[in-house]
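Course assignment 3, question 2. Fill in each field.
Student: A.L.
Task: Predict the tertiary structure for the chain below.
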Amino acid sequence: MYKFLFFLGVFTFFIFAAQAQIADSTGTKKSDTLKVKHPVKTPSGSFAPKIDPAKEKIYHPDSNHIPHKAVMHSLMVPGWGQVYNHRWWKVPLIYGGLGLLTSAIIYNQHYYNEYLILSRYRQGTPAKPGDPYYAESIQYAQVPDANLNDARENSRRNRDLSIFGFLAVWGIQAVDAYIDAKFIHSYTVDNNLSFKVTPGLINQPVFAQGANNAYIPGLKVTFTF
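Answer field:
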């Protein structure tokens, strides 16, 4: 009896094992008709970095905007380069500064000429009615010669400083026109604002190097914007 049950169990086991090896004939599974987008493979051995199109910088240079032309315009006529760069609001500032410096030059030149002629009157023939600055020579008759000479030199120095300031403003506005034309009209538009921290080694100065510590560990921070 037990042998019969044993052989019956073994026989049943082999039947199920054989059924498991029979292929499913109910039908072939339909393949997915959707196209799978495969990533672009980089050739073997290539060191080309993978660029994410969403983070790739997009530059918009203005090929019709020439920085050299902006500089030459500003050197010829103050503010012309700013007009060329469409920075109209800078023109009043430029002419305001140049106007004040021009007024300072005229003011100090006037008093320099006055004190110079008065000094010559005292060293030579006194002024007569009708001579230039005759009224001023009477007004400053009691002023010592040393004070008059100091006033003349102060006027000369202030005039020279005003001239240097005038030239400086002229040059600065030309440089400003170049910067606007160079960098404002060649820009990047993206949202790739990130930074990366990588370890590295820093070479110590010679005086700080020991026997076995020519390098010290450090961190390198790279900002991308």
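Instructor remarks: The beta strands are 59-61, 186-188, 194-203, 215-224. Residues 56-189 form one domain.
Grade: pending
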